[in-house]
């Protein structure tokens, strides 16, 4: 198939031209990189956002910086009282994933790729997905930006979940570090590379696919869970919904990270 040719300096492409270059099928179909919301609805919106961003002259990394800012601020709004904080967090995570799509689309249209872009993207996801459980802990303790005060055990549990989330994400990135340091090629982003070589573990992994608890620590899903907990808080008139969510997140985070580490060590990713 002949690649579509375009002028990277053209800041006013048609939607069809932009889709052909910025949303190639081989990119959208990547096994681990594309969030389900991307294929479902965000990619249909992000192409319009990208088209609006191009005339501003913003760089791909500039869009990534916006993504980082939106994600972190959105997480920090969680402790606001009632459903206001969780609702703002949900909206921020939707905007973040849209910008996460658009930064790559701007890069592909302008043909401007750099390690800095990948580095900043990782920082954005690390910071946001660690900030959400920490902010949930603050909310569970009754702390808010409007009424700051002392924090207690719920905040400690939220920070513990944040630490485990960061470790879990590091388990993925350290695979690439280990392969690079031993001169191995870049790992292909396909399902076969993640499959455990231990049959029993492979079966457990397949079974867990029907109950993807790891998604509780992805920004979009975590914000939706926070909103559900916030609704429970409002109905009850207390913070039990958020407190239960934080309590449940602790063992789920440990199981997720432990299973991930075991999966890496028993797969072909380090061969």
What would you note in describing this structure?
- This is CDP-alcohol phosphatidyltransferase.
- GO terms for molecular function: phosphotransferase activity, for other substituted phosphate groups.
- The chain crosses the membrane at residues 63-84, 213-232, 244-265.
- Pfam families: CDP-OH_P_transf (PF01066).
- The chain has 10 helices and no strands.
- The protein starts with 14 loop residues before the first helix and ends in a 6-residue tail after the last helix.
- The radius of gyration is 20 Å and the shape is globular.
- Helix 4 (60-76) runs antiparallel to helix 5 and helix 4 packs parallel to helix 6.
- The protein has a single domain, classed as CDP-alcohol phosphotransferase transmembrane (TM) domain (Four Helix Bundle (Hemerythrin (Met), subunit A), Up-down Bundle), CATH 1.20.120.1760.
- The model has no long low-confidence stretch (mean pLDDT 88).
- With 271 residues, the protein is mostly helical.
- It is 68% helix and 0% strand.
């Amino acid at each position: 198939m002949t690649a579509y040719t375009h002028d990277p300096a053209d800041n006013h492409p048609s939607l069809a031209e932009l889709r052909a270059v910025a949303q190639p099928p081989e990119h959208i179909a990547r096994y681990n990189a594309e969030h389900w919301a991307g294929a479902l609805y965000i990619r249909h919106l992000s192409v319009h956002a990208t088209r609006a961003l191009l005339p501003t002259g913003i760089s791909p990394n500039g869009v990534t910086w916006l993504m980082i800012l939106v994600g972190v601020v959105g997480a920090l709004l969680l402790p606001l009282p009632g459903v206001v904080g969780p609702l703002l967090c949900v909206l921020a995570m939707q905007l973040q994933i849209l910008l996460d799509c658009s930064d790559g689309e701007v890069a592909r249209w302008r043909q401007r790729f750099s390690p800095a872009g990948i580095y900043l993207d990782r920082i954005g996801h690390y910071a946001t997905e660690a900030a959400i459980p920490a902010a949930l802990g603050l909310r569970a303790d009754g702390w808010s930006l409007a009424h700051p005060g002392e924090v207690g055990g719920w905040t400690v549990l939220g920070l513990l979940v944040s630490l485990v989330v960061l470790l879990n994400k590091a388990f993925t990135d350290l695979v690439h570090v280990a392969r690079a340091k031993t001169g191995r090629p870049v790992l292909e982003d396909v399902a076969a590379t993640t499959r455990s070589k231990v049959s029993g573990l492979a079966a457990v992994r397949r079974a867990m696919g029907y109950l993807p608890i790891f998604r509780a620590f992805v920004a979009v899903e975590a914000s939706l869970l926070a909103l559900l907990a916030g609704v429970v808080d409002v109905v009850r008139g207390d913070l039990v919904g958020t407190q239960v969510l934080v309590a449940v997140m602790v063992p789920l985070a440990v199981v997720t990270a432990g299973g991930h580490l075991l999966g890496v060590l028993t797969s072909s990713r380090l061969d």
